[in-house]
Prior knowledge:
150 residues, mainly beta, two-stranded antiparallel ribbon, 8% helix
Amino acid sequence: MAKGDFPVPKFNFRVTFTPGGVISFQEVTGLDVENEFVEYRNGSDPFFTPERRAGMRKAGQMTFKKGIMSNDTKLMDLYNDLANKKAYYPTMKYPINVTVELMDEANSTVRTWKVWGAVPIKISADNFNSTENAISLETLELAHSGVDIE
Length: 150
């Protein structure tokens, strides 16, 4: 098999926040791009079905999950900038842009998702249970204005 003939595993990825820098995550979801469609039929069209065309793009939400570390406050800092400083509001000029890169075994970028105009909308911690032997996770949700895939 030639190099590049095998699917890339999904566990090697890098997430860069601008502002914020590189932050390591266990899981990233919501890298969706969707277009609505528009139906149109001209009155003199000989067919009785409307034509479908691409319409407006839909922006979605992304979810980032990572283990809580005692000296790492990057997610809380992003969320607190929204809550306390009112950053990321339309009147402010500080949107968050996020780049997610899927990497191959040589750490070369295979595919890139560029998310623009993101705003933190929710931060939460995992449930705590004294009978489980598990890592505590924190979750950040972002609403965004679009995703470009390269």
